[in-house]
Amino acid sequence: MLVDAPYIPASALEIEAQKAVEPGRPGPAFGRRLATLALRGGALAVFVGVLVVFSVTAPFFLTIGNIGNVLGQSAIAGVLAIGLTIVIIAGGSNVVTGGIDLSLAANMGLSAAVYASLAQAGHGDGVAIAGALGTGLAIGAVNAAAVTLAGIVPLLATLAVMNVVAGLELVLTQNTVVPASSEFLSALSAGGPFGIPVLAYVLLGFTLVVAAIVQYTPLGLRLYAVGAFPDAARAAGLPVKSFVAGSFLTSGLCGGLAGILSVSYLSGSTTGAGDMLLPVVVTALLGTVFSRRLVPTVTGTLLSALFVGFLINGFQLLNISSTLVSGVQGLLILLVVSATTLLGRKENA
Amino acid sequence: MTDDIRSGVNRRNLLKLTAVAGVVAGTGLLAARTAAAEDGLSLKGKRIGISTAGTDHFFDLQAYNAQIEEVKRLGGEPIAVDASRNDGKLVSQLQTLIAQKPDAIVQLLGTLSVIDPWLKKAREADIPVFTIDVGSVNSINNSTSDNWGIGKDLALQLVSDIGGEGNIVVFNGFYGVTPCAIRYDQLVNVVKYFPKVQIVQPELRDVIPNTVQDAFTQITAILAKYPEKGSIKAIWSAWDIPQLGATQALAAAGRTEIRTYGVDGSPEVLQLVADPNSPAAADVAQQPAELGRVAIRNVARYLAGETLPRETYVPALLANKQNVGEVSRKLGIG
């Protein structure tokens, strides 16, 4: 551990930093740096620009209540996207062969269904919370086993698990809405201090904790090393498989947590959890542009979730059809993917 | 036995009576509508939040668009949001709508347990809440079709069509949606008095989305399970999109002796009812656009200080093989 500690940052993280401190370095690296700067700055500029435009044009936009609403509304997608981000960090960001967890949305659906069913069967919140988190963790464990033990590509492994989980939810709920109410759930969906929903505080607190672990501890550095340079990480003695398995367990737990939030937000478990999958994947991928080095980060994913949330909110306040939101989102994704692909090609050239 | 027949005949007469009553009420309503236009109702300077669970069905699209037009016609500003059948989106939109502090919110459809806490929050924020087809205690007035009447009419038509005996297959996936629950309960109430009519267990669960394909698949499976002609007499669903899939499945399997029943008056299903060779036997048509207009006019009345009844009923029209042409004309379809 002590031996690899200085080694990992050097391999995983400081290459970029070194490039950055060598001024006037000619060739592709310089171009890449410029392009990176433009893309990153551009994304943030777009975000800030959108906020400014909405603040000026949309009534009620710049109120604490509304911003709190957006934070609260982004909580479920945000928690899921952060779970996915961890898997992407540990598995590498190649969309096809890298880390991905497609079972997250279905996981949330099943965890919510387990929560609501337990609550309806007369169990207390403690049992229901344990049930939901346990469900999420179990799904994460299946994913972890399929990827690390059976060696299946995460894209396929989690796709299969997604279908199993969605099927289990249908069996459990018969595709009906299972209402649930308790003091804990009401407290979670109520307004908190300063008129900001409790869910908003949950999202911010959750992001803070996960970001601290992933971005400011040796554990987090190793997670990045495992994803970006698996061979180097293995050579340095890092248990690559354990890290990958751990990332799936964590994302499974995030699915369970999102399930609990969803039960409180929707006063029960409802159908159609699968609809969340693509927005969550999009949020996690889009998060890359909000990071300093165009890599997946927890805070970047939070910004991305909030960006989408503010877009939808602003469009509604301006009385513009929300159908435009997915168009804007798609455009941004296309921009991000093509930009990162181009940048990668330049680096390899 | 004689009692059974007699009660069947009575019921059939009753059915005719209700149909007549419906037409009479409909005419009365049309008259009321012209009067309303001259009523001096106005929403000038008012912002009306219009929230719908979705617009992917004929019914909700018609009601949604009619609401928007009616608000504009009365001089108000509609803030219309469509949740595309996604409960999370529905709740977020309601939450934002409450923050926008409109002069009223009209909620069209939606699962009660999901939306009710948010309708309550709207009420607590002093925003008057109106609903269409949602029976919520937090709503000032609910514009709806008389779902007890719809359920009873459809059930009586079904029972009389199959001669008071046989197995019926039922789609009951949306018992959580109040109108569907009422229609289903009415079916059960009617069937209770026809001991030879059996609802096949387990009941089927209709789904959203992919309702048509899913109903097609489920009915195809049921037909394989009950291969002899006559072992199934009818298929009932609380709305007519599963009926569409079921009817297609019957046609594909050549089991056109089975009849299908549904509610909503979707144009494609009414066309099937009109086709003498189609198994689609009856579809109770609601008047969605009229429901939307009535709800908005109720908002205007309330804001002008009038007291409203808990529920405003808009008559529904049962379309069967005999009268489907007439009903379609009345709805302005085809």
3D architecture notes:
The complex is a heterodimer of chains A (about 350) and B (about 325). Chain A is mainly α and about 350 residues long. Chain A is about 75% helix and about 0% strand. Chain A has one domain: Orthogonal Bundle (ABC transporter involved in vitamin B12 uptake, BtuC), CATH 1.10.3470. Chain A has 15 helices and 2 strands. Chain A has a two-stranded antiparallel sheet. Chain B has about 325 residues and is an alpha/beta fold. Chain B has helices at about 1-35, 60-75, 85-100, 110-125, 145-160, 180-190, 210-225, 240-255, 265-275, 290-305, 325-330; strands at about 45-50, 75-80, 105-110, 130, 140-145, 165-170, 195-200, 235, 260-265, 280-285, 310-315, 315-320. Chain B has a 6-stranded parallel beta sheet with strand order 2-1-3-4-5-11, sandwiched between helices. A 6-stranded mixed beta sheet of chain B has the order 7-6-8-9-10-12, sandwiched between helices. At the A-B interface, α3 and α14 of A face β2, α3 and α4 of B.
